Amino acid sequence: MANKPNRILLVEDEALIALAERHQLAAAGYDVDHVLTGEAAVTRALDPDSRPDLVLMDIDLGPGIDGTQAARKILDGIDIPVVFLSSHTEPEVVEKTEKITSYGYVVKNSGITVLDTSIKMAFKLFDANEKLRDELTHRKRIEKALTESEVKFRALFEKGPIGVAYHEMVYDGTGKAIDYRFIDANESYIALTGVDPRGKCVTEAFPGIENDPFDWIGTFGRVAQTGEQLRFEQYLKPNNRWYDCVGYQVKPDHFVAAFVEITERKKAEEAASKALEDHRILLDNIPTQIWYLTDTTMYGAVNEAHAQFLGMSKEDLSFRDMAESLPDAVVTQCRVSNLEVFRTRSTVVSEEWAPSASGERRLLSIIKTPKFDENGEVEYVVCVADDITERKQLENM
């Protein structure tokens, strides 16, 4: 049996435009319903008998509520992907829609291929969000089950992979924390530290720890006295290992420390940091302009070639909005292709004019490639640009 086509509610007040769009969408395999006003869109979308799978919303809808207001009313009632279809390309208009929903913004007359791709992407994002919500609900149930079971806690303490120890603080005559005694420790603690500390004070179990610049005794003293909970990563000098630690008070002057060893991870991070620095040096010594985008107009980082082209420093550009450094017309031009990358999740090649350090307008050929995080979402976009002004002039001669 064939899959039922996705039902789309098209909200468009221009009858001729709507007719053309309905024809294109139907040819692409969608079941299309059409209304002329925002009020009608809200009524149709919230009616269980006519509820669509996706709303394709124009912004300007004549008298009555506009598309953004209609979208808010619909989303207040149901969870549904809303894609805006508008002739507006102004950054403030696009930003306004992004605050309502993040399923897409398509400029009219972009063509059925772009529109169809945007709709398919909206459905994928919607499905991904539903799966994420289900996963979070599942995780909360697991966490609740763990906290409700004392038997499970004891099993984790005795057999779990996390090192856990229970301590009593030791003070001098003035009330200053000067040591702490190990009341109990699990087998993982012994394996991860190489020391069986049970019944000993920390200065006996780890000689020299009282001289460690980190001040382990003072740090855990605050936990035992005040109830402050701590989470930190720290190098333990007496046994030359790194740990990811959690400390919390059980009752006054008693605390638990739980940890995992992260020595190998720290070594890997140091190696990665060196590699990253070498990579940065390489990028800053090539003539090709490279920069990163964290959204449609926000720089992540830029290389030296791009900064020099614009006549600015990397510090002036990195992690700043383009609007702080570039003319409005340039930002608007960039935003259109940048938005397409985030929307389509695919590489886009564009030719864009940009002001150079000399004040001359130069034509750049820019390859914009999305990079995805572990959840498959676009985390940032890598932009690689070449100045093709002279080449274009020769081609046009």
Description:
The protein is of the alpha/beta class. The chain is 42% helix and 26% strand. It has helices spanning 15-27, 38-46, 67-77, 91-98, 112-147, 150-159, 187-193, 202-205, 216-226, 263-283, 304-310, 314-317, 328-344, 389-395, and strands at 7-11, 31-35, 54-57, 82-86, 105-107, 163-171, 177-185, 230-236, 241-251, 254-261, 289-293, 299-302, 348-355, 361-372, 378-387. Strands 2-1-3-4-5 form a five-stranded parallel sheet, sandwiched between helices. It has a five-stranded antiparallel sheet with strand order 7-6-10-9-8. Strands 12-11-15-14-13 form a five-stranded antiparallel sheet, sandwiched between helices. Helix 2 (38-46) packs parallel to helix 3. The radius of gyration is 30 Å and the shape is extended. The relative contact order is 0.06. The model has no long low-confidence stretch (mean pLDDT 86).
Task: Describe the structure concisely.
The protein is of the alpha/beta class and 397 residues long.
Structural class determined from secondary elements: alpha/beta
As laid out across the biggest beta sheet, the strand order is 2-1-3-4-5
Low-confidence stretches: none
Number of continuous helical runs? 14
What share of residues is helical?
40-55%
Which range does the strand content fall in? 25-35%
What series of H and E elements makes up the topology? EHEHEHEHEHHEEHHHEEEHEEHHHEEEH
- Please report the total strand number as a whole number: 15
Mean pLDDT metric: 86
Biggest beta sheet attributes: 5 strands, parallel
Cα separation of the termini: 59 Å
Sum up the overall morphology in one term.
extended
Radius of gyration: 30 Å
